[in-house]
Amino acid sequence: METGSGFLESNNYGTGIVRVNPFVGIWIDGIGFARLGVSTYSFKERGEDESNELKRFDFSTQIGVSALGIEYPYIALSYVRAGAYAPTGDLTWNEIGAGIGHRFMLSPYAAIVVEAEHRWILEHYNKEDKKVSGRRLQMNFGLVAKPF
Q1: Quick check: 91 pLDDT over 70?
Q2: 3 falls in which pLDDT band (50, 70, 90)?
Q3: What does the pLDDT look like over 112-148, one tens digit per residue?
Q4: What CA–CA distance (Å, rounded) separates 4 from 136?
Q5: Of the candidates 102, 80, 104, which has an alpha carbon nearest to the alpha carbon of residue 92?
Q6: Phi, psi at 97, each rounded to 5°
Q7: Of 6, 35, 90, 95, most Cβ neighbours within 10 A?
Q8: 3-state secondary structure string, the chain?
Q9: Cα–Cα distance measured from residue 60 to residue 96, given in angstroms and rounded to the nearest whole number
Q10: Residue 124 to residue 136: CA distance in whole angstroms
Q11: Which whole-number Å values give the CA distances from 129 to 11, 84, 96, in the listed order?
Q12: Which are the contacts of 16, defined by CB distance < 8 A and separation ≥ 6?
């Protein structure tokens, strides 16, 4: 689950749940990880006199390096290609992030992941053809399960 405080998908500032993403990836203990995620969802955007359904599609990639071992924090870099599709117009934008995270082992096969990263929303045009960019503090919480 990813939560953010700062620039959110509604082109305003605030705090809220931004995305819930399933990820698949590879963890190599003592070195780092790479993972990919895809998220789709929709919500109703209510205006003064009308309501539109907004559909989202996000593709996420993340790499992390932990050269000291699994009991130490890791440094993570992320990239998100996000899209919002609505009857009034479609938007796509890129987000990049850098942060730090830690795995808390629950068992030899499962761990809880906590990450904090700074996300930059790169410049793009919104529905009113205005240039939009921003940044936010992103908190990520997750569960890692090792199949073997």
Answers
A1: yes
A2: low
A3: 989 999 988 887 766 666 677 778 888 888 888 887 6
A4: 6
A5: 80
A6: -145, 155
A7: 95
A8: CEEEEEECCCCCEEEEEEECCCEEEEEECCCEEEEEEEEEEEEEEECCCCEEEEEEEEEEEEEEECCCCCCCCEEEEEEEEEEEEECCEEEEEEEEEEEEEEEEEEECCEEEEEEEEEEEEEEEECCCCCEEEEEEEEEEEEEEECCC
A9: 10
A10: 16
A11: 12, 15, 22
A12: 3, 4, 8
Q: Delimit the domains of the chain by residue range.
A: 2-145
The C-alpha atoms of residue 115 and residue 141 are separated, in whole angstroms, by 7
Global pTM exceeds 0.70: yes
Question: 25-64, pLDDT tens digit by residue?
Answer: 888 877 889 999 888 877 776 666 666 777 888 899 999 9
Correct CATH for 2-145 of 3.30.70, 2.70.98, 2.40.160, 3.30.2130: 2.40.160
Q: Establish how many alpha carbons lie within 13 A of residue 17's alpha carbon, considering only the half-sphere containing its beta carbon.
A: 7
Per-residue confidence (pLDDT) for residue 49, from 0 to 100: 65
CA-CA distance, 113 to 132, in Å (whole number)? 31
Question: Side chain identity at 103, as an amino acid letter?
Answer: R
